[in-house]
Design brief:
- The longest helix has 20 residues, at about 1-20.
- The protein has a domain at about 25-90: Immunoglobulin-like.
- It is built from 1 helix and 7 strands.
- It has a 4-stranded antiparallel sheet, with no helix packed on it. Strands 4-1-7 form a 3-stranded mixed sheet, with no helix packed on it.
- It has about 110 residues and is an alpha+beta fold.
């Protein structure tokens, strides 16, 4: 009986320790344009309001917004320590659709 109690105590204690070590960050992203598809770290999450749960160790969220399959906005957001926060994605009104690479000339 004593061995069983020790075993159960060790199991309960171990599960408590390991569950407290696995820290994840859950953040939400809001885009007021209903046609924008929101991707976070190359994964499609949806439109308008989405929630991303980052695994332990992930500190940034790479956001990609698409409209009709074309990327119109990208941004990298530091999310470590911002658990439960809502980030608003503001898409510039003057976005241009282009698959060409642009080079700024002076």
């Amino acid at each position: 009986m004593n061995k069983i109690c020790k075993f159960l105590l060790v199991q309960v204690f171990s599960s408590f320790i390991f569950s407290s070590c696995s820290t994840v960050t859950a953040v939400s992203f809001l885009c007021h344009d209903r046609d924008i598809q929101i991707y976070v770290n190359d994964t499609y999450l949806g439109k308008e309001l989405v929630t991303y749960t980052a695994p332990k160790g992930v500190t940034t969220a790479d956001i990609e917004c698409k409209k009709d399959g074309i990327t119109i906005f990208t941004k990298s957001i530091y999310i470590k320590g911002y658990n439960g926060r809502l980030f608003e994605l503001t898409i510039p009104e003057s976005y241009n659709y282009s698959s060409e690479r642009h080079i700024n000339s002076k």
